[in-house]
Amino acid sequence: MNLARYRFILSRPLQLLPVLFGISMITFVLVRSIPGDPARALLGSRSTPEALIRIRAQYGLDQPLWMQYFYFLKNLLKGDLGQSLLYKVDALKLISTRIEPTLFLVLGSVLLALLIAVPLATVAARNKGGWQDHLIRLFTTAGLGMPAFWLGIMLILLLSVQLGLFPVSGYGRTGWDKLHHMVLPCLTIALALSAVLVRNLRASMLMELQADHATAARARGLSERAIFHRHVLPNSLVPAVNLLAVNIGWLISGTVVIESLFAIPGIGQLLVRGIFTRDYMVVQGVAMVLALATVMVNFLADVLTVMIDPRVNMR
Amino acid sequence: MSTPVLHVEDLSVIAGHGESEVTLVDRVSFDLAEGEILGLVGESGSGKTMACRALMRLLPSSNLRVQGKAVRLAGEDLLSLDEADMRRIRGRRLGMIFQNPGSHLDPLMRIGEQIGEGIRLHQGASKREARAKAIDVLRQVGIPDPLRRVDSYPHEFSGGMRQRAMIAVALGCNPQVLIADEPTTALDVTVQAQILRLLLDLRDQRGLSIIMITHDLGVVAQTCDSIAVMYAGRLCEHGNKLDLLAHPRHPYTAALIDCQPATSAGHAMLKTIAGQPPLLDALPTGCRFNPRCLQQGGQCTQLLPEMQATAGAHRVACHYPLPMGASS
């Protein structure tokens, strides 16, 4: 094995630093440009001016903006995201308790989407122009057209309210209970995500079925089935990995909607509440975590691409 | 010659149905002896590749179909086989190599595995046996350090090495007949000569019969034993290489030979054949070459000439063949 191709795994995290620095600056400014005063949001509309001043001084909100950013960065380097204004606890600790449900949601959705997309794309590509192909393409068009929140509501109405198969909302306590609670939210995301994947995979499979190397494999006497599994599928997965990475990045921030809909106590929900209460520290922290996760997903996609495709050389 | 390895009789490839039917390859017949190298020559679109794909029954579209009286490979009639039986023939008895080795090798699979794929399929070999055989074949096609190269990927090879690797893939299953579809077109001249040398060596060592599709008469002159010339989907002349190059009987063959660029001084202009090959859905009546032919007679625009033996194994499809020894 050519280990030199994996050397980028060591150097890539260093490139992460400027990215995170940029994101920290942008989120810091954006959060503070939301109209409204966190001290007033915290104390309510009938607070006294003295109390407001005291709160601002306590959280450093009376300092100039660049000073606040400097403190933010300094604390960030120590792994300290500051205190949540609303919950009065360490923001990092608060976020870390909320990561599990979101992670569960994202990983479950992606897994489910792959389980749906790969077989469907395979059937569609191998029966191009047949009724299976038309049916599957109809499914993808419908999947692309339906908004996730609406699809989620429909699934709740059908599978939870009517048939009583799954809980309507919430997260659960034990492992199995959590899994049971997460089926519907994951399915909601997976249906939308698999629609994108099926279209893309089907197109690349059709291309690979026509490719010269597939013809050469036929000339070797391989069956269509063997050609599909040994040559067509691996080759069409290469572009799909990157498409999936982009979509997971989008999905990570998109979980906000689904978490709200299904009342899942994840970081998306925390972010929404943080924005409404002007909880600067929490919003900043969540934004940093989401950014880090997105960058990580793309990094993993690169590693996966290098593993599948021997021609790729990241530098 | 003894009984041919491959006997092809009236092989046609037809596109479309009913009214819109177009014949891409029209009743091609030829024999191929053991150890013979046949050069199948013609312009782009003349149906050389299509005819060979029809032999393998690997047509690029489901809209195309093969017709014919017989395609016999060592006595077995391939036209009567179903797809499953045909798969047993492909690779195992009838191998094929292609013009562009870069795209005809799977970029994600190690060379050794691609060679082993056919060996495991056709000879029921284990993974380890297939690998040992692959190393063996790589050595035979002249790849240096095959023990290491067996684990390389196609992109780690140069163009000439890739073509050697593709030949190795085809040879792994020990075919009787190898169809080589312009195997040297994408290679530079020195590498081209090496690959041709390799094919000749393989013929000598294994008694391999080769159909070499090409539009390069230079390649034909260097390697082939016999030549078949195709024009607009039909065979127009077939015979021994030396006879055919020295004394072409068909005006098209003669014109084609005339078009070869000469390396000697004095020829400032390249010769060409005036006009263009006809479209296959708008063929001229009579001989398909008549609009471009310089020696026309009365029958040329009336009747499609059929292949006729002239001297020995030499066959020509022309109403007014050139006299012996008339050409350049």
Q: Main beta sheet of chain B, described?
A: 8 strands, mixed
| Uncertain residue ranges of chain B | none
Q: What is the fold named in CATH at topology level of chain B?
A: Rossmann fold
State the end-to-end CA separation of chain B.
Answer: 29 Å
Per DSSP E runs of 2 or more residues, the count of β-strands of chain B stands at: 13
Order of helices and strands of chain B: EEEHEEEHEHHHHHEHEHEEHHEE
| Proportion of residues in extended strands of chain A | under 5%
Gap from first CA to last CA of chain A: 18 Å
Mean pLDDT of chain A: 87
Globally, the shape of chain B reads globular
Number of extended strands of chain A: 0
Task: Supply the helix-strand structural class of chain B.
Answer: alpha/beta
Low-confidence parts of chain A: none
What spatial order of strands do you see in the largest sheet of chain B? 7-8-9-3-10-11-13-12
Keywords:
heterodimer; A: 315 residues; mainly alpha; MetI-like fold; 2 domains; 12 helices; 77% helix; B: 328 residues; alpha/beta; Rossmann fold; eight-stranded mixed β-sheet; five-stranded antiparallel β-sheet; 13 strands; 31% helix; Oligopep_ABC_C (chain B); cell membrane (chain B); ATP binding (chain B)
Task: Walk me through the structure.
Chain B: One of its GO terms (molecular function) is ATP hydrolysis activity. Chain B: It is a peripheral membrane protein. The complex is a heterodimer of chains A (315) and B (328). Chain A has 315 residues and is mainly alpha-helical. Chain A contains twelve helices and no strands. Chain B is of the alpha/beta class and 328 residues long. Chain B has one domain: P-loop containing nucleotide triphosphate hydrolases (Rossmann fold). Chain B is globular and about 65 Å long. The chains are: A mainly alpha (315), B alpha/beta (328). The interface between A and B is medium-sized, with 22 and 30 residues.
